[in-house]
């Protein structure tokens, strides 16, 4: 039977105060759907872009949030492979995760293994899958590779650094504060460059005997793009997967020619668009979880979603989750 629940509703773009707790209707699950009683929702920079209006990808008024963990309460017609009471995690590119209960397509859900806490799964599922795809499908990192991770003290940056190191790469990270430098070092970076004080490309050249890095992972965007490009080796690969500092200005593609460099702008959902792809990447991430730095920066009640986003926006060490 259908029910009501509380959820965070965004009615118009703006600051954190635009995230308002409201009572919403939760329908019965339709064919191929499941209804979840959610325990924890993840908070991501993507959510901030949606709230601010930088991404106009949520139909307003709407419920933001990309990922959450919950227990299945009801199964729609035709759903197989899941059971009532089972604990699952999901990422939904069409949002709706900031809620106590919701209906979601069963094809998006994966079982959360025993030993992985709800808060850890909710905080790290999107970040972990992103890192997994980056080192496996976007650019396959292997032993002997030299890797640059911009913002290595951030959420994805920490997991990405550890995954690259576990694959035998030499990892050079960047960070903007003493606290983030410590996080990057703990995550496995062999070297950490304080990017606010040093020329990143020059430091990479020094650390690699001017050889540069085989791949540079950059989610910062405008402020770091030129340095990442300059840090590449011959035939190096610049992977830009975010724009925390703002969009990158238009690029003259001829700039890549000096090093025969390649540039990619991957989007996670293109790599988990089929059920086999999602299951394979999720399985690989959860299998690696015991060896990864998967801490929680802070927990907020659902009603304080705005405060959680503000903490993330102010570069406080995360990740942050919402207790539903």
From TrEMBL:
Protein keywords: NADP, Oxidoreductase
Location of the Enoyl reductase (ER) domain: 14-322
Stretches assigned to coiled coil: none
Gene3D superfamilies recorded: Medium-chain alcohol dehydrogenases, catalytic domain, NAD(P)-binding Rossmann-like Domain
Protein name: Quinone oxidoreductase
Pfam families for this protein: ADH_N (PF08240), ADH_zinc_N (PF00107)
Taxonomic superkingdom: Bacteria
InterPro entries to which the protein is assigned, alphabetical: ADH-like_C, ADH-like_N, ER, GroES-like_sf, NAD(P)-bd_dom_sf, QOR-like
Keyword NADP among UniProt keywords: yes
Organism: Novosphingobium pituita
SMART domains associated with the record: PKS_ER
